[in-house]
Amino acid sequence: MFDEIVRWSGTARQVSRSGQVLRVDLGGEAVDIHCPAPERAGSALLALTGSSTHFEGLRALAAGRGWTLTADGLTRGHGLDEIASSEADIYAALDLPFVPPEIREGPDALIAATRNELPTLVETPDIRGDLHMHSSWSDGRDSVEAMVQSAIALGYEYVAITDHSQRAGAARTLQVGDVSRQADEIAALRERYRQITILHGCEVDIMPDGRLDFTDQTLERFDIVLASLHDPAGQSPERLLARYIDAMRHPLVSIVTHPSNRLVPHRPGYEIDYGRLFAAAVETETALEIDGGPTHLDLDSGLARLAIAAGATVSIDSDAHRSEFLGRQMFLGLLTARRAWVEPQQVLNTRPIQDVLQRVHTKRSCRRADD
After folding, report:
1. Residue 9 in this model has a pLDDT that exceeds 60
2. What is the pLDDT of residue 35?
3. Strands of 29-34's sheet in order across
4. What pTM was computed for the model?
5. Domain final residue, candidates 114, 141, 169
6. Residues sharing a CB contact under 8 Å with residue 339, sequence separation 6 or more, in sequence order
């Protein structure tokens, strides 16, 4: 196996090789590849992934229950009992439920496991649709139809086409005059692809003065509206937060996308008061996005966990700009959500389309009541 890896064209060069470990250089990054014997694969995986805090905590717990845990396996009685081939078997031998790898970071997961209080993390089959993607109407590469076809292939029940509003900093944007034409195209696709609900949405920029980039008259024509900031942190944290809160209070805004607006690895996220942001999301019934785009992954797992603890609803979306990236970027968003201990009931797009539309309608009805 190691010989094949070294011959693979993506590997720059072999750095070292000894026993069951191969170290290669991938573009300046040293990567260790372990190939343990199958009968010890579980214990090696447990020791080499996740945090040292979790593994050391597990070792201490094992010692208290008469076991010895190392990277070679879980043993008891001078090695007469050995469990090493499966992570699940090691946890079970210690009378613990299986701890998902994504939450093996600090001591929290082990504490929850001993109390039988581990969360039921959101999984791929829970995702019913994707509420954030871009087509060739703005800066996406592919047509609306291509995006819909990919969503159908992924088994989604619904999809939202959410191109950038007119003054966004994207290479191409959706102009006011394009909205009706795009709506007509989507209407025709609904007739052609009856197995999926296609929502006509937009990602509207929140302007520096707090207004939205489209007028209310234009926004009312969309099935769902996402609001976002894309500009670098040229304003004070207080002003950035105020812009977000103004947008959340707008009855036509259902989701705030990539809230920290970080750009991995080039730009850190906004240094705003996220506690107030999450409280505003709860108060206004605005979902906060966990964006699966590799340069976003935003909210990150730490902030997403705080958002969930505050009672906010999240939406896990791909923010894909190419049809072939829909599944991959949704998976990255899902992994981020799982690291944040997110459960299915806390996610907007695990719900049936009727529930999603009812949430949109309920918030919009506040506007009609105020008129």
Report:
1. no
2. 87
3. 13-18, 21-26, 29-34
4. 0.92
5. 114
6. 102, 103, 105, 301, 304
